[in-house]
């Protein structure tokens, strides 16, 4: 019973300035299959990016947070390393991650997915009357003394479906950070039945403000503008066991979370955390790429590649596609499978098979999935948690770059 449930769920889809860490918990995706997850990601990384523009001012195109040096990205991670609050993390089946936040005064607690592929914060509203909202925490503005009305309409698409509601403002607490005057969406139309079974209540976006619906200032930008952080960075260590779910760090880098040096790749455009993908290899097979970006996305457990390439890679590892569009490999072969290597900004980042194959009670599922490439200006390569479990990742707004080092 547990195996069936997990496979189904997987395939459905601090107060002072400084470094701040907080607990992440892992839970199963609740989308109905790879098809929904990849359709959503195709939309998420597709044509809508063409019509969004960076905001000037608070962290947008008009802001230079840290002066650039003459040699571009040649700064060192020592600039950003600082103390913080170590928090033990929880884990569920290496599928998806969430953390707790609080809204209002007195605080109301919510579990949210930290999503580097979107830019808005939303939670269910007390006005939402669906079955899904009934089983999730709901924000009640009447119970908060710091609530301020906004009322403008909000609509956004996520992996679990579309959400609709209206904008409100209140105090946001995440870890030991308190963010004043944060605009967010109260959702009154939830994403549907998949949301009902999710262990999270909403999303907190960490992408550039160019993607923000209604040009709402994202939470991380408000952290910077309110002087809560020493450095304009946040970082992730994604755990890979039930005893360790990982950690998100705001305002610096946790030097105990990685080994070796952090290597940085510049962001191709200030929207998603998208870096240059030059080449992909699997064993002796090699695919050269030109003018191709890969988005670094903390909200999906998958590695998303163009459909035809997904087919070829899965055939190469001996995977077969089942009736529900899922690729599986014989578990007896997993240890002998070749490394899957992504070359980001010219540097190789290998994954052994234990990262791109998920073993669920004896069923070994490939986390390499296909996404359509028929959208103009689309980003068909998306590196999710399967990649991030191997690499500690630094998202640096000041340098417009993503840093990678081996997680420990």
Folded structure, characterized:
The chain is mainly beta. It is built from 8 helices and 25 strands. The strands form 3 sheets. Strands 12, 13, 14, 15, 18, 19, 22 and 23 form an 8-stranded mixed sheet that branches. The protein has a 6-stranded mixed β-barrel with strand order 2-3-8-4-7-6. The longest helix is centred in the N-terminal third of the chain and has 11 residues, at 34-44.
List the helices and strands and how they pair.
Elements: H1 2-11, E1 20-27, H2 34-44, E2 96-103, E3 108-115, E4 121-124, H3 131-134, E5 148-158, E6 161-174, E7 177-189, H4 193-196, E8 202-205, H5 219-225, E9 233-241, E10 244-250, E11 258-266, E12 274-282, E13 285-288, E14 293-296, E15 303-306, H6 307-316, E16 320-321, E17 327-329, E18 340-344, E19 347-351, H7 353-356, E20 357-360, E21 363-366, E22 368-371, E23 381-383, H8 385-388, E24 391-396, E25 401-407
Parallel strand pairs: 3-8, 4-7, 14-23, 15-22
Antiparallel strand pairs: 1-2, 1-10, 2-3, 2-6, 4-8, 5-6, 6-7, 9-10, 9-24, 11-25, 12-13, 12-14, 12-18, 15-23, 16-17, 17-21, 18-19, 20-21, 24-25
């Amino acid at each position: 019973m547990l195996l069936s449930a997990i496979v189904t769920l997987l395939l459905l889809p601090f107060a002072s300035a400084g470094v701040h860490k907080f607990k992440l918990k892992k839970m199963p995706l609740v989308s109905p299959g790879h098809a929904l997850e990849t359709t959503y990601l195709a939309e998420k990384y597709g044509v809508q990016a063409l019509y969004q523009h960076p905001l000037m001012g608070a962290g947008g195109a008009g802001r230079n947070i840290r002066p650039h040096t003459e040699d571009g990205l040649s700064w060192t991670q020592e600039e950003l390393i600082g103390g913080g609050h170590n928090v033990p993390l929880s884990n569920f089946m290496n599928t998806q991650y969430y953390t707790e936040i609080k809204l209002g005064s007195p605080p109301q607690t919510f579990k949210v997915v930290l999503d580097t592929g979107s830019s808005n914060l939303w939670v269910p509203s007390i006005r939402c009357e669906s079955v899904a909202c009934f089983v999730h925490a709901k924000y009640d503005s009447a119970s908060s003394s710091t609530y301020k009305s906004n009322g403008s309409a909000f609509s956004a698409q996520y992996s679990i479906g579309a959400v609709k509601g209206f904008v409100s403002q209140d105090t946001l607490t995440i870890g030991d950070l308190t963010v004043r005057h944060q605009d967010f969406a109260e959702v009154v139309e939830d994403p549907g039945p998949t949301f009902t079974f999710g262990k999270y209540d909403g999303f907190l976006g960490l992408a550039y403000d160019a993607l923000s619906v209604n040009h709402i200032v994202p939470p991380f930008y408000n952290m910077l503008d309110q002087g809560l952080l020493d450095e304009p960075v946040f970082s992730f260590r994604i755990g890979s066991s039930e005893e360790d779910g990982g950690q998100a760090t705001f305002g610096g880098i946790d030097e105990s979370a990685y080994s070796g040096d952090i290597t940085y790749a510049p962001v191709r455009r200030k929207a998603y955390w998208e870096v240059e993908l030059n080449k992909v290899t699997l064993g002796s097979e090699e695919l050269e790429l030109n003018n191709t970006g890969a988005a670094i996305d903390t909200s999906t457990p998958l590695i998303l590649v163009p459909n035809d390439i997904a087919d070829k890679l899965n055939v190469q590892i001996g995977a077969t596609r089942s009736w529900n569009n899922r690729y599986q490999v014989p578990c007896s072969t997993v240890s002998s499978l070749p490394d899957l290597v992504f070359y980001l900004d010219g540097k190789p980042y290998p994954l052994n098979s234990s990262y791109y194959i998920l073993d669920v009670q004896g069923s070994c599922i490939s986390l390499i999935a296909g996404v359509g490439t028929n959208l103009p200006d689309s980003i068909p390569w998306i590196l999710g948690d399967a990649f991030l479990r191997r690499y500690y990742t630094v998202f640096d707004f000041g340098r417009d770059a993503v840093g990678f080092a081996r997680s420990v």
